[in-house]
Amino acid sequence: MRKVVRQSTVLFAVAAGLGVAGVANATNGYFSHGYGTTSKGLAGAGVALSQDSLAAATNPAGMVNVGDRIDLGAALFSPHRKYTTTGGPSEFCDGPNCSFSIGPQSISSDNNYFLVPHFGWNKMLDDRSSIGISIYGNGGMNTEYKGGNATFFFPASMGGPDAFVSPEGTYGGGTAGVDLMQLFIAPTYARKFNDTASWGVTPIIAYQRFKATGLGTFAPNSSDFTNLSDRGYDSSWGFGVRLGVQGEVAPGVRLGASYQSKIFAEEFDKYKGLFAEQGDFDIPANMTVGLAWDVSPTSTLLFDIQHIWYSDVKSIANPLMPNLMQAQLGDDGGAGFGWKDMTIAKIGYQWQTSPDMTWRLGYSYGKQPIRDSEVLFNILAPAVIEHHLTAGFTRQMGPNNELNFAAMYAPTKKVSGPNPLDPAQTIEIEMYQFDLELSYAWKF
Fold first, then answer.
1. What is the pLDDT of residue 423?
2. If DSSP codes are grouped into helix, strand and coil, which group holds residue 12?
């Protein structure tokens, strides 16, 4: 009984710590490139090979194969975001719509370092079934652009001074940026079909936190300008499910597949004048399939394919134009970020050099989701990363403990396109990233 109380206390403390931690995993869109330190060392691959109690985030079927263990760790995540505008400002009106320009200027976002903790616990009920819980940051996005200016043209024929007006801030509303955090609490039940195959189910409780600043300029385009920008943090709870299977189909060859439903979340009421569908911000469904092949007694090659349905969430997928002119921000057809779906290929290789030491390398590629026509709003969310290079290791620290490490580098990617509100201007958004993660495991 005392042991159960201790474990429950640890679980509560970790959940509370994760709930207040800044999470900013803008790698595959705004999803993390991987979950759990062992998987991160393999560029996120692992749907067919589960190695720690964060496995439920990739494939709940694998939890029955990791045994009794606790994993506790944290990542130091460092995204570097920047935008550059050239050309403009222009002096024109197209009917009631007049030019709006940013700069010209080049500004980097503040807040380049984030601590992202995670926790996992798994318990075998018998030799064929297990229960567990995984708590982790699913993803997020953070930007904060200070300084700069935006330029508006108001001709005298529309009651203006027939001149440019240049207020401070990227969009003319002061410091501009967003802060999105998504935390997943994922209890899991997994069971073996037989000695070589298993299935698992994970009900997901999702917690989201969001704020936006510097967007007051778009008040005339909003269905509720009092809930558009600079309203502080708002939070939202949501629910969904992840299902998975995993099994050996030939000696040394394992296949895995998992599907996570769309997570239906409460609306962000403080931002119902910004996000489409009156503040709706559901979390898109995703699916992963893959294999793990033991190419030798001490080495394994992994290959995963993941697909994320960003296009199924209007606040993410609706394009800026013509939606900004045909509907109000916050309406069902209101402008969003114009993201496409993503398909990501992940390949990883791990090998054991001694009973106490396992090494990992990984690489993933997924074409980024932002069209060049959507760069104006995506200054706030420049999720343009496509390549991830990873490495990691596991060091056994005696029979019941292990130390895990993973590192990730995502090289600079840029996307440029026209400012739809000033065709003479080009906007370029860019990002590169580092991630270092360390965790410790207790086996019991």
1. 87
2. helix
Torsion over CA: 164, 170, 175, 177 (sign): positive
Tokens found for residue 49: 């090979």
Instruction: State residue 93's pLDDT score.
Output: 82
Question: For the purposes of burial, counting CB atoms within 10 Å of the CB of 261, is it exposed (0-12), middle (13-18) or buried (19 or more)?
Answer: middle
Distance between CA atoms of 19 and 436, rounded to whole angstroms? 20
Domain of 310, CATH number, reads: 2.40.160.60
Separation between Cα atoms, residue 118 and residue 36, nearest integer Å: 8
The token duo for 136 is: 């982790």
Closest CA relative to residue 277, chosen from 310, 315, 309, 311:
315
In angstroms, the CA 368 to CA 362 distance is 19
| Residue 354 C-alpha from the chain's centroid | 35
pLDDT digits (tens, 9 = 90+) for 354-375: 999 999 999 999 999 999 999 9
Handedness of CA 51, 347, 391, 40 (dihedral sign): negative
How many distinct helices (H) and strands (E) make up the chain? 6, 21
Q: How far apart are CA 187 and CA 185, in angstroms?
A: 7
Integer Cα distance of 85 and 90 in angstroms: 13
**For 134-158, b where at least 16 C-beta lie within 10 A, e where not — what string?**
bbbbbbbbbbbbbebbbbbbbeeee
Q: Based on the structure, what is the number of domains in the chain?
A: 1
Q: Which residues pair with 7 in a beta bridge?
A: none
Hey, what are 331's tokens? 């309406």
Judge whether 153 and 97 are in contact, CB under 8 Å: no
Cα distance between residue 437 and residue 408, in whole Å: 9
- pLDDT at residue 7 is higher than 50: no
pTM: 0.93
Tell me phi and psi for residue 11, to 5 degrees.
Answer: -60, -45
Rg of the chain over Cα atoms, rounded to whole angstroms, equals 23
- What tokens appear for 411 in the block? 């090289």
Largest CA distance in the chain: 80
**Other C-beta atoms within 10 Å of 4: how many?**
8
Domain holding 200, by residue range, is: 2-443
> What are the tens digits of pLDDT across the range 109-124?
999 999 999 999 999 9
* Cα separation, 264 vs 302, whole angstroms: 32
